[in-house]
Specification:
Length: 219
């Protein structure tokens, strides 16, 4: 169960809330995102809604919060995002990318090509499907990879779920490069583990640092 895959939509929605109303030569770049997961997303093809709300914005930065709800109105996840505004010649748009639509059985992990090279080490190969409009690894994809690596490090199987991910973006990650997610298990207990995940490109310089909390599924 990839709860972290919701990070893609949450990053998009909260980021664009900041972008709306900003100068055309400035664009928000995520500084940090925290997501708290309250439940598993539905897998029965029912819809979910993602909502974003502007909390504060000035000439340098923005703060937003948002949520994911299912079609009954139940809250699945909550998010807080902080961003800063960078100078751009024009606001970026995602380039058109041709690809075969995966079947409904295809997981996010397989669609993006994530692989586990060792316990706690996960790699994302170069792929335009992981890129944002600026050609960098999408912040939500870095959330996904951090969760996959953390779950691999604690050998989660099917009994653990991610309950929160707190990620800081320290520099852009090139989507045309391999991104490696390496873990340090800070705490491993009976019902909860805390994992620190560092995502880096081939140069070894970190592009994101995440703290992932995983807990046992309630009986």
């Amino acid at each position: 169960m990839s709860r972290g895959s919701l990070g893609v939509a949450l990053d998009d929605v909260t980021g664009h809330v900041v972008a709306r109303g900003t100068d055309e030569h400035r664009w928000p770049v995520s500084l940090s995102i925290r997501i708290d997961f309250l439940a598993d997303p539905p897998l029965d093809k029912t819809s979910m809604s993602v909502h974003g709300e502007l909390i504060a914005r000035d000439e340098r930065s923005g703060t937003t919060r948002g949520s994911v709800t299912d079609d009954s109105g139940r809250t699945i996840a909550l998010v807080t995002q902080r961003s800063h505004l960078v100078a751009v010649e024009a606001q970026p748009t995602s380039p058109r990318t041709s690809f075969d639509l995966p079947s409904v059985e295809t997981t996010v992990r397989d669609a993006l090509g994530f692989t586990v090279s060792a316990g706690g080490i996960v790699e994302l190969p170069p792929t335009p499907l992981a890129a944002n409009g600026m050609g960098n690894v999408h912040g939500g994809v870095l959330i996904c990879g951090s969760e996959f690596a953390a779950m691999s490090a604690v050998d989660a199987g099917g009994v653990l779920r991610t309950t929160s991910i707190d990620i800081a973006y320290v520099r852009p990650g090139n989507a045309g490069d391999t991104t490696t997610f390496a873990c340090d298990v800070v705490h491993r207990g009976r019902s909860m583990s805390v994992v620190r995940v560092v995502a880096a490109g081939s140069t070894g310089k970190p592009c994101a640092v995440a703290t992932v909390i995983v807990q046992t599924v309630p009986a």
